[in-house]
Hints:
Elements: H1 5-11, E1 15-18, E2 32-44, E3 47-55, E4 60-66, E5 76-82, H2 85-89, H3 97-111, E6 114-119, H4 122-125, H5 128-139, H6 144-150, H7 161-170, E7 174-178, H8 182-190, E8 194-199, H9 210-219
Parallel strand pairs: 5-6, 5-7, 7-8
Antiparallel strand pairs: 1-2, 2-3, 3-4, 4-6
Helix pairs in contact: 5-6
The structure holds zinc ion.
Amino acid sequence: MLKLGRNLAVRLCYNARLKPPSAHGHPMESPLTFKAITHSTLPTKFGVFDITVFDDGEHEHVALSTGLHQLDDQPVLVRVHSECLTGDAFGSMRCDCGPQLSAAMAMIQSEGRGAILYLRQEGRGIGLSNKIRAYALQDQGHDTLEANLLLGFAGDERTYEMCQVMLDTLGIKRVRLLTNNPAKINSLSALGIEVTERVPLQVGENPFNMVYLQTKRSKMGHLS
Ligand SMILES: [Zn+2]
């Protein structure tokens, strides 16, 4: 058994049935089932993480964590990061996702304790092909929010109900959240997750994403 210990092994058998509200606040008709499928260790250039995979029946989400075998009542440093293939894997400079993920992994390793919840909701929840469609609209002069709206989506289609199960499985009760996005804190709080502190994550600004970051600040409530 890995360092995570007996408690996680027990919790890995945990299945949760939740009825998350839809984007419009109405309960969804069929409850999602979340499962922690499996875990192992993942050595990275930032240090060694424990990796746990969760399945909500539609997507496989990932938790990278370290130091959680010595949990006490202190809040834990957590990054809730939504998948960005272009930024996370290809080093895209259209956004700041890649540097944010790297910085979060480094900060958590330097604290010796924390978790990244890597949620598979690409492109603020609209999917990869729609994100690239939105990029094409941005190439024509629209900003990131206008592009999403033109495609018939909300500015942000992400949901966070899977975080509840992931944090519960990892044994994390209180969170110091690495984010610049107050709406994310509100979404997690609404799910009953206690966020004790916002830890800013200011990395990854470059000449290609200055307008994008400015739009997130001026139109989507992100903080500097
Ligand atoms: Zn991105």
